[in-house]
């Protein structure tokens, strides 16, 4: 809830979007990490799925509206901002933010890895220690129900983490970070989808060419049967943007 005055904030379908590139994102998060007051902040990397889901889930919409930083995860959001605001919004995808923070801050980071199937976050943590020298504040898998939210939030709050990676799937992860923000109390909390899987090596990062074009979702959808139903949803998003543009006149 603290968009800085010099960082323009747009609205896309009632959700905020900060116009900020990857490098400035890393600098801003670095400031939050360095603040001795350890004020908690939540980060959302916005994608079309979030926009579509949040329309029918008020709790999810609230978590995005209350986020301290909302970056454009992919090309779908860049497209929507161009269509609806004639703005060129740079991308700051979740994985690039997490890797960039680890590269810049290494051993200053006390990371809590929350999410993915049992065992995967352990592997992610081991690799992050090996590759970036981060300190592991804690680890928990992402398969627990709402009745365990408070227990897990307290575990994280007591861990002394300064970076929380919450990778439990779009919606669940943003709502968890937003609802428990006070108990979590972590200076930087990011909802970051499949990032723990990628760090663990159980999922591959999309190839560089798709990342350069900003279309890594094409690769993900094509390579994962579970995601085949998402392609029509992305087309729906394009339709939604067109309709909104007509409505705005
Ligand atoms: N995940 C989890 N708990 C759940 C559902 C998913 O920890 O209840 C993890 C899953 O194992 C994966 C990550 O969340 O590591 C992203 O999942 P998925 O790709 O299905 O979600 P998306 O972010 O693409 O919606």
Automatic annotation (TrEMBL):
Q: What keywords are assigned to this protein?
A: Glycosyltransferase, Transferase
Show the coiled coil region(s). Answer: none
This entry's Gene Ontology molecular function terms read:
transferase activity
Q: Name one Pfam family in it.
A: Glyco_tran_WecG
Q: Could you tell me what this protein is called?
A: UDP-N-acetyl-D-mannosaminuronic acid transferase
């Amino acid at each position: 809830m603290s968009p800085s005055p010099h960082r323009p904030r747009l609205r896309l379908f009632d959700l905020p979007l900060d116009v900020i590139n990857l490098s400035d994102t890393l600098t801003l998060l670095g400031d939050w990490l360095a603040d001795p007051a350890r004020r908690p902040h939540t980060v959302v990397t916005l994608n079309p799925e979030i926009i579509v889901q949040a329309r029918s889930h008020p709790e999810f919409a609230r978590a995005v509206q209350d986020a301290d930083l909302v970056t454009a995860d992919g090309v779908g959001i860049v497209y929507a901002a161009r269509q609806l605001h004639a703005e060129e919004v740079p991308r700051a995808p979740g994985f690039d933010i997490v890797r960039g923070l680890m590269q810049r801050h290494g051993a200053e980071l006390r990371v809590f890895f929350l999410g993915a199937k049992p065992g995967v976050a352990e592997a992610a943590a081991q690799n992050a220690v090996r590759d970036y020298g981060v300190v592991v504040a804690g680890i928990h898998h992402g398969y627990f129900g709402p009745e365990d939210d408070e227990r897990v939030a307290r575990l994280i709050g007591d861990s002394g983490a300064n970076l929380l990676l919450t990778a439990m799937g779009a919606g669940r992860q943003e709502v968890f970070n937003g609802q428990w923000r006070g108990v979590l109390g972590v200076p930087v909390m990011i909802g970051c989808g499949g990032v723990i899987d990628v760090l663990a090596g159980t999922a591959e990062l999309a190839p560089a060419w798709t990342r350069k074009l900003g279309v890594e979702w094409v690769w993900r959808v094509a390579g994962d049967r579970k995601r085949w139903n998402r392609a029509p949803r992305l087309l729906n998003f394009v339709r939604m943007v067109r309709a909104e543009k007509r409505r705005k006149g």
